[in-house]
Amino acid sequence: MMSETNKLVAEVRNSFGKGVARKLRAAGRTPVVVYGHGTDPVHLSLETHPLSLIIRQANAIIELDIEGRKELVLVKDVQKDPVRQIIEHLDLIVVKKGELVEVEVPVHVEGESFSGTNALLELNTLRLSAPATSIPENVVVNIEGAEEGTQVLAGGIALPKGCALLDDPEQLVVHVVVPRGSAADEEADAAAAEEAAAE
């Protein structure tokens, strides 16, 4: 279900260029381009504050009101100023209800592995095919009580209804290990001592 916050009124842009974009941002609006389904790109601007709240969600869907016409779009690319972290520009892609889209969904690890072990997250996101209007926020991997040597592969993770894995199912996602920092550190110290003695 889409929350009210994900509905935005768009204004059509007919003038372009850096100066125009700067003026828009100064007025609290963000330039966006909507691509989709074989149609020409549509240049719009959206109010920056509500937009910045929406794009904190991974794979956010927005319902745009473009001069009275409703359009569902998926946030595809966000360009930010690297220093000030201001949103400079957004690419949006048109989606239809019932359509499948390709998305990257964060992996969320739950539970505590066996005492004395650490769970290493080898893959932060999974590439999925998901229904455009019900993209999962994350994919959960439960490692409660998992022992040393436990490996969770992409293909072994339960996916939400309607989703399919696009990554290699043999790809390692989570690996449970016993930290061996101390032994490695001792070896490094011994090697350093030998080098010092050789000099």
Reported for the largest beta sheet, the result is:
6 strands, mixed, barrel
**Mean pLDDT reading:** 85
The helix/strand order is: EHEEHEEEEEEEEEEH
CATH classification, class level of the largest domain: Mainly Beta
Query: CATH superfamily assignment of the largest domain?
Result: Ribosomal Protein L25, Chain P
Distance between the termini: 69 Å
CATH T-level topology of the largest domain: Ribosomal Protein L25, Chain P
| Total separate domains | 2
- Helix-residue proportion: 10-25%
How many distinct beta strands?
13
Family: Belongs to the bacterial ribosomal protein bL25 family. CTC subfamily.
InterPro entries: Rbsml_bL25/Gln-tRNA_synth_N (IPR020056), Ribosomal_bL25/Gln-tRNA_synth (IPR011035), Ribosomal_bL25_b-dom (IPR020057), Ribosomal_bL25_C (IPR037121), Ribosomal_bL25_long (IPR001021), Ribosomal_L25_dom (IPR029751), Ribosomal_uL5_bac-type (IPR020930)
Function: This is one of the proteins that binds to the 5S RNA in the ribosome where it forms part of the central protuberance.
Pfam family, one: Ribosomal_L25p
